[in-house]
Specification:
The protein is an all-alpha fold and 280 residues long. It is built from 16 helices and no strands.
Length: 280
């Protein structure tokens, strides 16, 4: 059992919509015209509506009314377009997850919370959308495990009462890998950029890779801020063991003060519902 073979087996189940794959391919080509991207988006009316809602939301902060997909593309840019298209489509990708393991409304609320927090923590405005996508998708590996290995996943969930560190150790013992590694493999096979899937892969061990250390620490901090605002599951946790060791290391590297974290939480609460309403 390894992440690559599992993801290969379930790619037909957890696949992006055709329009999203087409847009991803066009952007990867490096020479896609805005008109080509517009045509691909307009082939999916639901995606079109969500993209325009994003472009006109206070979350994205564009000036003036954006009434056409072409104008949205010209303002947003191709990299951010890819991210927003994925965000607009991802909740419909994961279906049939056992409800006794996770409430999907709770899961996506937590994921959006993490995405918003990661975006707020990003030091560069130019790269903040990829942090949102990494935050939004940081937990998709859990959904694959819930779907394919429900009995084993129930055991992992039971260990959450002892904190996230205990849950990570349970995953390693039962599966031989973590949900973070599995989720990163899915994003890699979706052909998302390494600067997104590497964040997801390293979120539980952010100090491991110096090249991606800042990004991974940012996502790690965002996940734990999201855990405080809106937990991923309804499992009871021990308050004394709620913050895992790797989170403390990430906060230290980023220089996050209690005041800054409180500020991020305050702003995030204002954005979460708007973003959640758009993607769902």
């Amino acid at each position: 059992m390894d992440p690559c073979s599992i993801v290969t087996d379930v790619r037909s189940i957890f696949s992006l919509p055709d329009a999203v794959i087409r847009i991803n391919d066009l952007i990867d080509s490096g020479d896609a015209a805005n008109a080509e991207l517009e045509r691909a988006i307009l082939n999916d009316p639901a995606l079109t509506a969500k993209l325009l809602k994003f472009a006109n939301s206070s979350y994205f902060g564009l000036s003036g009314k954006v009434e056409t997909v072409l104008r949205a593309i010209s303002i947003i840019g191709h990299k951010e377009l890819r991210n927003l298209v994925i965000a607009s489509s991802v909740t419909s990708t994961f279906k049939g997850i056992p409800s006794d393991l996770v409430d999907m409304d709770t899961f996506w609320h937590h994921s959006v919370t993490c995405g918003v927090a990661a975006r707020l923590l990003a030091c560069s405005v130019d790269s903040r959308e990829r942090f949102f996508i990494a935050g939004l998708l940081h937990g998709v590996g859990r959904l694959i495990l819930f779907s394919q290995y429900p009995k084993e996943s129930a055991k992992v969930l039971n260990s959450m009462s002892q904190g996230e560190d205990a849950a990570i150790q349970a995953e390693l013992k039962i599966f031989g890998f973590t949900h973070a590694q599995l989720g990163a493999e899915l994003l890699k096979q979706w052909r998302l950029p390494p600067n997104i899937w590497k964040m997801v892969e390293l979120q539980l061990d952010p100090m491991k890779d110096e090249t991606h250390q800042y990004d991974a620490c940012t996502l790690c901090a965002a996940v734990n801020i999201a855990n405080f605002i809106y937990p991923c599951t309804n499992q009871r946790t021990n308050p004394d063991k709620k913050i895992p060791n790797h989170a403390f290391k990430a906060w230290s590297l980023l220089g996050l003060s209690p005041e800054l974290i409180e500020s991020v939480i305050t702003v995030a609460r204002l954005q979460i519902i708007e973003v959640l309403n758009i993607i769902r």
